[in-house]
Amino acid sequence: METLCTEKTPEPGAFLDILEERRRTSDISHALRTFSPQPYKGHPPITASALNQAVLDSQHLHSIVEEIATESGEPVEVIREKASGILNEMSHNLQLSSIRLLGYTLSKVFKRAFHTVLVNEDGLNQLRQAIQEHPVILLPNHRSYMDFLVLSYIMFTYDLSMPVIAAGIALMDMMFFAPLLRRSGAFFIRRAIRADKLYWAVLSEYVRTIVRTGYAPVEFYIEGYRSRTLKSLNPKLGMIHMVLEPFFNGEVDDISLVPISISYDRVIEESLLAHELLGFPKPKESTMPISVRELAKGRINFSQHNQVPREMPQNPSEETQEFVSVMGHGVVRLQERGMVISPWSLMATILLQSPEGLGLDTLTQRTTWLRDIVLDWDIVLDWPAQVSDEEVISSNISRHRSMVCCEGGRVLLIEEQGPDGEESITPETAVFRRASIMLMCVSYRNQALHIFVRPALVALAIATTSSTKKEDVFTHFKFLQELFSNEFVFVPGMATEDFKEGCSLLVKCGVLQASDQELVVIEHGTDTASFLRAILQPFLETYQVVFRHMTEDGVVVFAEKQYIPAVRSYCLKLILAGELQTYEALSSDMQKNVLYTLVRMTAVTKTKVGDQNEFRVDKAAIQRIADILGSIGSHVV
Amino acid sequence: MASNGKSSERQRIAQQRLRIIAGHLRKQEELDHRDIAAQECKAESNSNAATPNSMPRKRQEIMKWNGWGYSDSRFLFNKKGQAEFTGKRYRLSGLILPSLKDWFEGTFGANLQHKSPATPAINASAVHPPNLSESFVEELKATGIPFSHDTEDRVFRAHGHCLHEIFALREGRFGRCPDMVVWPNCHNDVVKIVELACKHNVCLMPYGGGTSVSSALECPPEEKRSIVSLDTSQMNRILWIDEKNLTAHVEAGIIGQDLERLLNESGYCTGHEPDSMEFSSLGGWVATRASGMKKNIYGNIEDLVVHIKMVTPRGVIEKSCQGPRMSTGPDVHHFILGSEGTLGVVTEVTMKIRPVPEYQKYGSVVFPNFQAGVACLREVAKQRCAPASIRLMDNEQFQFGHALKPQESSIFTSFVEGLKKFYITKFKGFDPHQLCVATLLFEGDREKVLQHEKQVYDIAAKFGGLAAGEDNGQRGYMLTFVIAYLRDLGMEYYVIGESFETSVPWDRVLDLCRNVKERIIRECKDKGVQFAPLSTCRVTQTYDAGACVYFYFAFNYRGLSDPLSVYLQVEHAAREEILANGGSLSHHHGVGKLRKEWMRETISDVGVGMLKSVKEYVDPDNIFGNRNLL
User: Fold this and answer.
1) CB spacing of B582 vs A306 below 8 angstroms
2) CA nearest A213 in B: which residue?
3) Phi, psi values for residue B17, rounded to 5°
């Protein structure tokens, strides 16, 4: 998986604004121009209906249908009819006319919503090549509903084959949009389908057939759903497994994976919250197509796939699952690497460490300090070149006035105003209001979190290890990484590499002295080190609080829907009492992460009762984890 | 063979001759029984003195020492830049091939100005002097069995026909060569030689036709003992023909074309026609599990042999009777079949024979694309109605075949050809860069052949196939025999190439073909080959459960510093790709030393252990030390 991690981020200069031409020439003629993409050369093109027929006729589906018929006692015809129904609900109906309509509409929408839409042309040219050579999988990150169409729009503009896009079934409920989306290449997938054998079979055969025949590039969100916190999410592996299967089976010579990073200077959803529809630069870029064949070299033993008939449904081997998992995580890492960081993300990171506010000068000075560190780490930053630092800071403050304000030379997080004439608000309401602004700010910090996670974890591990020996620090690092692996994306089995990366970044920013055996913090690096550690503090605190709640609470067994309210009220109580500093503990996202971390670490067991998840707590086990964490937590600041 | 009346006339004459020969043989046999101890091979050979021996001891007198086949037959570009094939032996001999030059230059980016000629003759000083075992030579002399340690004889038997072997010869590089060559004349000679080899701890390497493409004939460089090449070419008699049981008992050194010719004279054939049958020997077929073009009717070598006699260091192994099938534990024949000279020397074989078929007809079908062709072959196999041979060439090979068309004899034929092409590409809408062709060979009695032909063409039509005439079919099969000569032509102009094969289940045929061809192209590109290689395949055999696929690849190596290593890496990668796609390590070429590294994964640890323990029992001192297979 080395290739996934040594990928160089391209020069930021290579971005081009695609809206510029739209502002100069006719949108209609853009939408109606000759659209002649170069198709995949390995397979003659087929129609959407031929694709569906191929799925229904497949040996794989036939055998599953028969299997289900035998199990359920229902006649084969009925099951086949069901399968056909599922396929109808699912399948896309890509049509050029709709693409043109979409192209026209989006030109209008984007020009209104965005200042610029920047694309990496080199990346697109590589994509053009890749589409002709091998089946292509487009893997964008998902931060906004806009993602859904933005890629199709760009591909239309650049004369690239239109992708078919995996969409959540929820989108299908949008009465007016669903048919349009379908005709624009969307296909719909229900949620929680693991248990539905027939559905799974239809879906996987559908996806496989598209990939196998190189019907169209397949686009899906490897993170599974839109990240509400704007933090990258651990990948969902089911879909990636489906698209890779034709390669494992040797039905295609190779598959090109194209991780795509879409970064927003300002997320539309956040703006919607602020009742304002004004967008800003939106640099987008795609990394090099990755050859699955190269990645699989020496990792997959194909002979297991050759012992049984090609069409026979089979469970993936452990080796394959591991490969898919490493690959999925690797793709998310590549998306992270491809992201363009906005100055505001850095400012948010700094501001969140001083909830009481900062002087404008201090903020400017801290932000440029952080900028220099980050640039030194080869991060692509969208820092305007021709403008003074002060102007960058102040323009960002005003752009994000929904979160911050500058009063008397001090920059503060704003207090959200309640409805007019509201006199007395309860302390609870005040906390939630403040929390909503905080969490909005957090979501911008989260977009830069992946840059800091590794050096911050190393810095934390160093502070909590009594010895300076590398291997001792590494032990602590590994514990923290394991604990937080629901929170941040780490490629499984690459702890050593992550540790090395963290160390080398710390050396670069003058925190550490490079040495083979020892890790020694340099005197004047302590400030940077404590800044990095403080980034992790909200996570440490929240995890500790939830652990405490679970060990103190009398309840041993609870349902998922009881969990969130219970934890929320516990945290609220602590915040009001001044015992808990971080408002992030109120984020249901993080609360869920803690729960599933404990499940992963087998301190909590999850069982299915009816269609509800039930959790059973092993208090002693949680206490053990809490104790280790407790000894670490005291060292944070 | 096409004309019915003539062949039955010939059969009658053949029958008569057979009776005479059979009479001779019977007399000889009676004599043998009377005086076993005094048996003399030389006397036996008198009985069929009429048999012309097409393979002399000094093979280099009629064959190339550094290329394929007969010295008098080769491709060349004449002064006008036209390709021609010299000699008189083949249908193509003496003909001009006007389109070959354009195809050659266009496919490989080669240029007739850029030549890469071979070293003209063996430089004897470049060959290591023989390492002889004095005592062995001494005792061998006493037996009267002919032998030689002449450099040319040794060099000739130090290689097979892998690209790297021929390439080295052309450059005048010689690795470890056998130290001497012996020519046993019969089974008993072999027994004596093996006894002496055991006694004096000499390494024996059996040598049949020398057509190996698995590095099987390469002398292990680590072998310190004297290496003796045991050339079986003089053991080439048909010892008896049994018309009641339709079997023939034959000495294992006989080469394919002699066996068929001699049997034909008696009105029979074995029907075993591997592509190398001009030179490869019966013993070699047994030792490598060979497969013939017409196996659909006659079967592969393992189906054809009834009885095998092999001399091993432990003694002679053979079954007690000529029963057609036995249930006596694992079939010991299967230790011999595919043993690749590691256990002993096959000396005599009883083979099934068939009457020469009354009627033979070639045919061909054009398909719009390779997928349709494979689907058709699969259906033919499913219905178990495969003709004697059915082969499917991909588009590249189809175009290659066209490049080998001799000059049109008349304006009329070229007009007809043009018309056909028009019909297929314009009227039927076939894309000339997609279409592919299946070649067919039907055999049997006339009526059945015609019936069979109709059945196959009807199936083909269901897959969009169009009958494309007998000529195309026949040319396809001719290609088989001349392709090895073509490689020598390529090597004169910086083009090197190789063929290799595999067998694969039906459901993976298409994927395997595509992926392997792609892999070859990609590997060549990665390794700095300037011009895209020729990478092509054909399906050459069909079975109930799968097919045999044959690949050719060749590229222009101008500008590469180490072309041989590039070639070896590409071939290695192609084999890995085959295995990853569910193909077998080999369908009929065997393992030799070239594919040894994959044996363990192919037959499992236990499988390797089983073979090893057999080797250890049969040949504990590794007298048959060619180190093939394991």
Assistant:
1) yes
2) B511
3) -65, -40
pLDDT of residue A562: 87
- The answer to whether B343 and B616 are in contact (CB under 8 A) is no
| Residue A599 per-residue DSSP state | H
pTM for the model stands at 0.82
Distance between CA A478 and CA A475 in Å, rounded?
5
User: Please, which residues bridge with residue B240 across strands?
Assistant: B249
Q: For B583-606, what is each residue's pLDDT tens digit? A: 999 999 999 999 999 999 999 999
Q: Render B507-568 in DSSP notation, one character per residue.
A: GGHHHHHHHHHHHHHHHHHHTT-SSPPEEEEEEEEE-SSEEEEEEEEEEE-TT-S-HHHHHH
Q: What angle do CA B325, B331, B336 make, to 5 degrees?
A: 115
Annotation says B550 is catalytic? yes
**Residue A301 in contact with residue A319, Cβ under 8 Å?**
yes
Instruction: Say which of B207, B298, B550, B567 is annotated catalytic.
Output: B550
Cross-strand partners of B346: B310
Rounded to a whole number, what is the distance in Å from the CA of A301 to chain B's nearest CA?
8
DSSP B425: I
- Residue A124, pLDDT > 50, answer yes
- CB-nearest to B581 from A42, A250, A254 is A250
Residue B431 near chain A (CB below 8 Å): no
What secondary structure does DSSP assign to A66-124, as a single string? HHHHHHH---HHHHHHHHHHHHHHH-----HHHHHHHHHHHHHHHHHH-S-EEEEHHHH
Interchain CB distance below 8 Å, A253 and B505? no
CA distance A312 to chain B (A): 11
CB contact under 8 A, B514 and A306: no
Paired tokens of A615 = 């959790």
**Model confidence at A155: pLDDT above 70:** yes
Query: Looking at beta carbons, which residues of chain A come within 8 Å of B507?
Result: 309-311
Sign of CA dihedral A595, A597, A602, A603: negative
Which residues of chain B lie closer than 8 angstroms to A303, CB-CB?
579-580, 601
Q: Is A250–B508 a contact, with Cβ atoms under 8 angstroms apart?
A: yes
For residue A158, name the pLDDT band (cuts at 50, 70, 90).
confident
**Distance between B515 CA and the closest CA of chain A, angstroms:** 5
pLDDT in tens, A304-359: 777 777 777 677 788 888 999 999 999 999 888 888 888 999 999 999 998 888 89
Count CB atoms within 10 A of the CB of residue A295. 22
- Nearest Cα neighbor of B93 from B73, B69, B68, B77 is B73
Half-sphere exposure of residue A549: CA atoms within 13 angstroms, side-chain side: 23
Q: Which of B235, B259, B239 is nearest to B183 (CA)?
A: B235
Under 8 Å CB-to-CB from B551, ≥6 apart: which residues?
A: B499, B500, B501, B502, B516, B517, B520, B535, B536, B537, B574
How far is Cα A288 from Cα A139, in angstroms, rounded to an integer? 12
Residue B518 forms contact with A (CB below 8 Å):
yes
Cβ atoms B291, B537 nearer than 8 A: no
Single out the residue of A521, A533, A519 nearest to residue A634, CA to CA.
A533
Query: Token digits for B137?
Result: 């030579």
Q: Which helix (H) or strand (E) holds B351?
A: strand B345-352
Min Cα separation A253/chain B (Å): 5
Residue B601, chain A, CB below 8 Å: the answer is yes
Cβ neighbours of residue A610 closer than 8 Å, sequence gap 6 or more: none
Contacts of B602 in chain A (CB under 8 A): none
**In whole angstroms, what is the distance from residue B490 CA to residue B552 CA?**
13
Q: What is the pLDDT of residue A261?
A: 85
Mean pLDDT of chain B: 90
Q: Which of B507, B579, B581 sits opposite A309 (nearest CB)?
A: B507
Q: State in Å, rounded, how far the first CA of chain B is from the last one.
A: 44
Q: Is B515 on the interface with A (CB under 8 A)?
A: yes
